[in-house]
């Protein structure tokens, strides 16, 4: 894999002088076409051996192209502040919009490399990290972010010479960090780790490209060509997922909604007693050290129109200090949100440590309204089950407790509530013509909901089906399940 | 001012029971109208004596209204992470969108109170903080954010009783921070400071409302009424600014653009030598400790179309590591940006410590294109001079070096460049019908530019007028002025 790069190929200055102006013109032209099409973003992940001139080359790319549409990001080890959010949070937030180019130093491959270089790498952890990287890249590509990965490489001899050169010149010595000076000694070890990582994460949709880096001319031209090819690619497709562990088969499953007891109810007195009890427990829990120091909470409310989401949310927030929560009403994505992968706008809303985000509708719109209204092709919402499961898994893995409620009512109950709203002085606002339209598609929404409830009912973020024809019963059930899930998460820490 | 509040008025439970349901209905209705109109946002700043039940009352507001459109924020003392941005950054970022309500604990009044409570407050600092608060609120109101400020107050006796009560109940004792237990002793002192602050910052457009807080019923009802009145106000207007120190008189000034020597030029050889020299100095400067540990840099490029902004930017970025800068091309604001005060989107782009943001066009669009194209009334762009000067002053005060370039070319030179672009294989992209339209309005744009150059040429962020008919001359001038400004800022630290 590294044979060519370690032969340290070179290019004469005269040849470079001939090639580079052509390359620059083509790069710039390709960039403007890419920007004009606005079909996808390009993400360039940078890796490689130290002293291989990665930084210089990227500066050059910025110089050759229109740097206003290139965003270069360097992620260092997470700081204390970064750690109040899940690990993937900062990478997601930084994704470029369609038409733009993002260049990333210190991507998720930096910790992977660190692990691989350990005296005794943890094989399970390593394997998990590889899988996570593959999944992440596939999800990006499937969502309009093209990915290429450049690995800058050179021979051991050339690396040593380059380090010496950098160190001898006072104006470049700063580029060599103290820990990098050891690298020549570790060359073989590093090479082995890189080979393993590259082999496990190379793919047609997110390829690794080895850049021979000993000679500046070769390095520049090869990097430019790699970016040019990426910009010029007509389409980038992810192979369909086949892994049944992540992607469900969509044959008709039993519908959990039909198994629910819609007659469940609670008397006014029992309700008052229960409300006080569960709100008190919730209030204590969310202020406890066990919660605020290790967890955050995302609560999802889905269900038909008029299922009582708002009322249930209020019974939760009554128990919580207003400074600790935020409620996100989720409607159709805005243009700047459509320019990014679907889950981007929800990553932005992930709560920090100790905080609570409540979603009134959520990312499940992808497999509900967007599916039913045919806003996206089947392949996209089908794939979304796996993407969503992955998203929630990452959250749960970082200590974010994800609690999802489906408030289930019958069509007759919905009709009754619509009529009530029509005649209510200020609840009229809540009823729109769209609600009536959706109601006519009850069957299609129910099918979509049933599929969703089956395919995204994971061990780390299961669905709570709430029988909601009786509001009192529903509200208490919500509080109770929520309290139990938080208690469980805190217990699991010990 | 505190007479009524310190008489600790009370309201019987039966009376409260009569008033509150009406109040809630009216609040909710007013909120939905406010949301529907989407004319402005409402920002509620919370202050008051400790133990006055501020937190409880705000939780109640969230419960009474539709909490999905209320965002409660608590700002504590700035952390290390907060300090890498200017002080006002986090307040600006958190502003609610039009139609929404933001409730803020720990606003800018918290540090003001701290200063006022010192044994020997610094009178100049105090005065500056008062002025800053007044300016900030006036700017918000002028930009569609209504502001009300609630001060929760009670008598010394009632406060002492309340503290005792909270401390005795284990489920509320947490609400009393150790430092708060001293407060009864400091009551007189605190009262004096509060009075001084409230008197100096009360205004018709951003009023202080004193909430008697000893009795829970009175506190709830009075708070609800205050918010209701705010939501129901038809219009909120800031009195026009009269202070000539902040707002310029718009009588015709001398036009600095006519005084420029447009014939300045540089030979190719001199250019190459100078380029190397200034880029080297710039490269060293932006990596120096004096810069990265104490400063950030915002570079603004304005000028007619084809004035050479892009080329000048490239000569700067060639000297800087791509990880250290970002370029922001500024076009018309997007809908979600129009929902906030004009400067909001630029506050979001303020660089963190050690970083560099380069603006290809900028917030000056307010007094250039928006004025010339009559997108906003005269009073708005007139006021913008003061707002912009204030914005840049706050940046400069926090160590952000703001360097502004106007690249000036003659109409003849522009025509020549347009023609060149028309025939160039990939520069065609740069020329749009809008460029020709703007060219026909040359005179109007020149007048706007001249006014801007005069009225925003401040000591902390002066304009650099660059004669740019000769690109080589312009690029070297830009680099030179930039280097000198950074050097100056670092020198001033000592």
Gist of the model:
The structure is a homodimer of 494-residue chains. By secondary structure, chain A is of the alpha/beta class.
**What spatial form of chain A do the alpha-carbon principal axes imply?**
elongated
Helix content of chain A: 40-55%
Rg value of chain A = 27 Å
Show unreliable segments of chain A: none
CATH superfamily of the largest domain in chain A: P-loop containing nucleotide triphosphate hydrolases
Order of helices and strands of chain A: HHEHEHEHHEHHEHHHEHEHHEHHEHHHEH
Please give the oligomerization state of what you see. homodimer
What is the name of the CATH class of the largest domain in chain A? Answer: Alpha Beta
The domain count of chain A comes to 2
Q: For the record, give the distance between the C-alpha atoms at the N and C termini of chain A, rounded to a whole number.
A: 46 Å
Mean pLDDT of chain A: 90
Q: Which CATH-level-2 architecture of the largest domain in chain A? A: 3-Layer(aba) Sandwich
Question: What would your notes on this structure say?
Answer:
2 copies of one chain form a homodimer. Chain A is an alpha/beta fold and 494 residues long. Chain A has 2 domains: 230 residues, P-loop containing nucleotide triphosphate hydrolases (Rossmann fold, 3-Layer(aba) Sandwich); 238 residues, 3-Layer(aba) Sandwich (Rossmann fold), CATH 3.40.50. Chain A contains 20 helices and 10 strands. A 5-stranded parallel beta sheet of chain A has the order 2-3-1-4-5, with helices on both faces. In chain A, strands 7-8-6-9-10 form a 5-stranded parallel beta sheet, sandwiched between helices. In chain A, strand 2, helix 4 and strand 3 form a beta-alpha-beta unit. Chain A is elongated, with a radius of gyration of 27 Å. Chain A starts with a helix and ends with a helix. The model of chain A has no long low-confidence stretch (mean pLDDT 90). Chains A, B: Pfam families: PPK2. Chains A, B: It comes from Orrella daihaiensis.
């Amino acid at each position: 894999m590294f044979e060519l790069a370690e032969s340290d190929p070179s290019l004469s200055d005269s040849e470079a002088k001939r090639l580079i102006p052509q390359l620059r013109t083509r790069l710039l032209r390709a960039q403007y076409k890419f920007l004009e099409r606005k079909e996808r973003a390009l993400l360039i992940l940078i890796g490689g051996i130290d002293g291989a001139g990665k930084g210089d080359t990227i500066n050059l790319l910025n110089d050759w192209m229109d740097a206003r549409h290139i965003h270069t990001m360097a992620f260092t080890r997470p700081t204390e502040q970064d750690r109040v959010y899940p690990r993937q949070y900062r990478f997601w937030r930084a994704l470029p919009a369609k038409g733009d180019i993002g260049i990333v130093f210190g991507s998720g491959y930096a910790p992977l490399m660190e692990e691989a270089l350990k005296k005794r790498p943890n094989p399970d952890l390593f394997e998990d990290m590889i899988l996570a990287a593959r999944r992440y890249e596939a999800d990006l590509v499937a969502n309009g972010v093209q990915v290429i990965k450049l690995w800058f490489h050179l021979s051991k001899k050339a690396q040593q010479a380059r380090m010496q050169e950098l160190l001898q010149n006072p104006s470049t010595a700063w580029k060599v960090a103290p820990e990098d000076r050891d690298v020549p000694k570790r060359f073989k070890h590093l090479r082995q780790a890189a080979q393993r990582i590259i082999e496990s994460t190379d793919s047609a949709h997110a390829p690794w490209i080895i850049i021979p880096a000993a000679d500046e001319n070769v390095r520049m031209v090869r990097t430019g060509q790699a970016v040019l090819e990426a910009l010029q690619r007509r389409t980038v497709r992810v192979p369909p997922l086949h892994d049944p562990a992540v992607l469900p088969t969509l044959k008709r499953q039993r519908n959990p909604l039909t198994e629910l007891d819609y007659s469940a109810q609670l008397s006014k007195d029992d309700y008052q007693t229960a409300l006080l009890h569960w709100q008190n427990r919730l209030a204590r829990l969310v202020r406890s050290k066990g919660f605020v120091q290790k967890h955050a909470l995302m609560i999802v409310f889905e269900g038909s129109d008029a299922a009582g989401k708002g009322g249930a949310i209020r019974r939760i927030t009554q128990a919580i200090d207003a400074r600790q929560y935020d409620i996100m009403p989720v409607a159709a994505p805005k243009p700047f949100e459509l320019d990014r992968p679907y889950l981007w706008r929800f990553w932005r809303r992930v709560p920090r440590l100790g905080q609570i985000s409540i979603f009134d509708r959520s990312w499940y719109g992808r497999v509900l309204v967007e599916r039913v209204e045919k806003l996206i092709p089947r392949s996209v919402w089908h794939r979304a089950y796996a993407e969503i499961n992955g998203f929630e898994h990452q959250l749960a893995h970082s200590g974010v407790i994800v609690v999802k409620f489906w408030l289930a009512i019958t069509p007759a109950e919905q009709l009754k509530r619509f009529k009530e709203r029509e005649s209510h002085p200020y609840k009229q606002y809540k009823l729109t013509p769209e609600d009536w339209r959706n109601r006519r598609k009850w069957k299609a929404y129910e099918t979509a909901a049933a599929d969703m409830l089956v395919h995204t009912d994971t061990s780390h973020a299961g669905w709570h089906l709430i029988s909601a024809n009786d509001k009192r019963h529903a509200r208490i059930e919500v509080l109770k399940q929520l309290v139990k899930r938080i208690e469980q998460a805190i217990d699991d820490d010990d």
